[in-house]
Amino acid sequence: MLSAANLFCERDDRVLFQGLNFDIEEGQVLQIVGSNGSGKTTLMRILCGLNDGYKGMISWYGEEISEQIENFYQSLLYIGHRVGVNKVLTPIENLRWGCSLQAQLEDEQLMEALSTVGLRGFEESQCFTLSAGQQQRVSLAKLLVSPAKLWVLDEPFTTLDLRAVQHLENLVAAHADAGGAVMITTHHDLKITNLSKLDLG
Amino acid sequence: MTVGNSTPTSAAFLSTLKRDLLIAYRRKNDVVNPFMFFFIVVSLFPIAISPDADKLGEIAAGVLWIAALLAGMLSMDSLFRADYEDGSLEQLLLSPHPLYFMVLAKNISHWLVSGLPVVLVSPVLAYMLNLPAESYMTLFLTLLLGTPVLSLLGSIGVALTVGLGSRGLILAVITLPMNVPVLITGTLAVQQTLNGATLAFYLAILGAMLLASIALAPLASAAALRISVN
Amino acid sequence: MWLWFSKLGSPKWFYELSGRWLPWLVAAMFAFLFVGVVWALLFVPQDYQQGLTNRIFYVHVPVASISLAFFPLMAIAGTITLVWKMKLADIVVKTAAPLGAWFTAFALASGSIWGIDTWGTWWIWDGRLTSLLFQFFLLIGVVSLRSALEDSDAAAKACALLSIVGCINVVVIKYSVDWWNTLHQPGTDFVLSSNKANGPDIWVPLVLMIGAVYLFFAVSMIMSTRNEILERERRSQWVEELVDNL
């Protein structure tokens, strides 16, 4: 569904990657690995259209991405280092806004998603009272209700506890099984069957 | 996987507007501070210049306009700041809707929260500064049309500088000169209507400025946000 | 046409071409400057109303008129930067902003020297000076935005955008300030037409000085652009060869 051809990116006179080619197909989980500073986050931001400092071609179902950006964004869910959770809003309010950009959902669905990620009882407390891991979970609740086919997750495990990590891994696997695709950076060893890796060195 | 209907842009616009109003309601400081700033700056003028009613009446319109302009500029800082820091801005950029409308929603909510209170209280301060009574309406209406323009223009500067760790005065250097046309029209309106000019003419000019900046400024802000988040 | 356009975008090509032009431009500039200055200072009859300082007019008018060209120049270069990502265009935006601030500051200074005779004071909130002053502020804004944003790619695009916004703004400011100051004396754009009445003795040196200042503008733009090209391309082969051949 998403393919990159001959990607080149340099930052501060240092080449991060060049001649990079890869495809992500439906049902695939692509783990991007590489040492710190190898450009994992930059690559993800480039693919999402947040960074345009690259050369090369990125296409979505065979058509160049900039030609159909709204289609692409309708199918994309990106969770970056900054998870997009406002601290003065409650989890439910955050989720309501975050999802409303892509899909119209009922509050019951959102509440259910929040309790699935373990935030039952915290739906109405402001996010600054929650721990970093709990805030991360608010953003992960989006995965449960979003219509997006492609998930782009940048280090989603960092603040999560062991059980949540396991839960997220299962979610990722289930999403791929259901025909979605996931792009993920992490230093964990993922126990997912249809996993492929892209090494940035 | 639960899939809802995809959102029309109008719904995303309203949702963003509602969210920002809710945040402002939770962060009451952001609402009260510009308002208090406006009040305090205006109160400094009689102390620095003279409590003499005639002198004050002469400068009242200019003082109120400049104080409104400064209050607006200082409050602008919060427009994209928190969203940039917590990553909501990235989510906004990745929404499948034209960024123009999302930025416009944020601008409108910001003006409702920080610009409108200043406009509403302006007649009281105009009275305290001894502005001629027949100018109240002029001042109020020109501020009502002019302060949104200041917000819209300021948002371009904020969007350009949102990635900077310490912005300090750079926002002021970039945005204050841009406000000159609005300032000129607003203060001239008060002076000239006292001399018998028709108010409608000035309101038409400010209205034209407002329409032009509604049409263009969010586009520039949106482009600036994409650059800043890069 | 397209080939020429993309070639122009190459800093190396520009560096070589401008290197060939530069001596001619400098020579022409000095020729205009010499004749213009000598004529303006020694042979123009002293204005019967105004004193010697009136001759600053031969500097002020050309400098003020060229300083109005900076924002349009930066807006055009900025548009090219944003649309075609051309390196050279960004270099133009970057070098034009501080240079424009200097030209505008010089126009303001020469205007105030002229003002001491015309109005009897160093500063007056005259429409022309006021809009130049705000143009100066806006240019300083572009310069300080550039220095505040360290990332050169983001800085390039941000300054390009601010230049476009600033250009539109300068025009609106100019009209509104003129309107605000409807009582000020007519702008100095009139000189060419109305001074013809005073005979060629007055306006020929002015034309020469305008030519000289425009050439000075071109020379200083080209020279600072060349500097910036060397700075940015310092790691490329052709610059290293250039340095080796010194």
Q: Can you tell me the residue ranges of chain A where pLDDT is under 50 for at least 5 consecutive residues? A: none
- Main sheet of chain B, how many strands, which sense, barrel? none
Question: What percent strand of chain A?
Answer: 25-35%
CATH first level of the largest domain in chain A: Alpha Beta
Helix share, percent of chain A: 25-40%
Q: Based on the structure given, which CATH architecture of the largest domain in chain A is correct? A: 3-Layer(aba) Sandwich
Keywords, separated by commas or semicolons:
heterotrimer, A: 201 residues, alpha/beta, Rossmann fold, 2 domains, five-stranded parallel beta sheet, four-stranded antiparallel beta sheet, 6 helices, 27% strand, C: 246 residues, mainly alpha, 10 helices, 79% helix, globular
SSE map:
The complex is a heterotrimer of chains A (201), B (230) and C (246).
Chain A (H helix, E strand, L loop, with lengths): L1 E10 L2 E11 L4 E5 L6 H9 L6 E6 L2 E2 L4 H6 L1 E4 L11 H10 L2 E2 L2 H10 L15 H14 L4 E5 L7 H16 L3 E5 L9 E5 L2
Parallel strand pairs in A: 3-9, 3-10, 6-8, 8-9
Antiparallel strand pairs in A: 1-2, 1-4, 4-5
Helix pairs in contact in A: 3-4, 3-5, 4-5
Chain B lengths: L4 E2 L2 H18 L1 H21 L4 H24 L4 H6 L1 H6 L5 H30 L7 H26 L8 H6 L4 H15 L4 H31 L1
Chain C lengths: L1 H7 L2 H33 L13 H11 L2 H15 L2 H32 L8 H22 L3 H29 L10 H5 L4 H33 L4 H8 L2
Helix pairs in contact in C: 2-9, 3-5, 3-9, 4-5, 4-7, 5-6, 5-9, 6-7
Can you describe what's shown?
The complex is a heterotrimer of chains A (201), B (230) and C (246). Chain A has 201 residues and is α/β, with parallel strands linked by helices. Chain A has helices at residues 40-48, 69-74, 91-100, 107-116, 132-145, 162-177; strands spanning 2-11, 14-24, 29-33, 55-60, 63-64, 76-79, 103-104, 150-154, 181-185, 195-199. The mean pLDDT of chain A is 88. Chain B has helices at residues 9-26, 28-48, 53-76, 81-86, 88-93, 99-128, 136-161, 170-175, 180-194, 199-229, and one strand at residues 5-6. Chain B is globular, with a radius of gyration of 19 Å. Helices cover 80% and strands 1% of the residues of chain B. Chain C is built from ten helices and no strands. Chain C has 246 residues and is an all-alpha fold. Chain C starts with a helix and ends with a helix. Chain C has one domain (21-41, 50-244). Classes of the chains: A alpha/beta (201), B mainly alpha (230), C mainly alpha (246). Chains in contact: A-B, B-C. Chain A binds chain B through residues 48-53, 70-71, 73-74, 76, 78, 80-89, 93, 96-106, 109, 126, 144-145, 147, 175, 178, 180, and chain B through 1-7, 11-12, 15-16, 18-19, 22-23, 26-27, 82-83, 85-88, 90-97, 229-230.
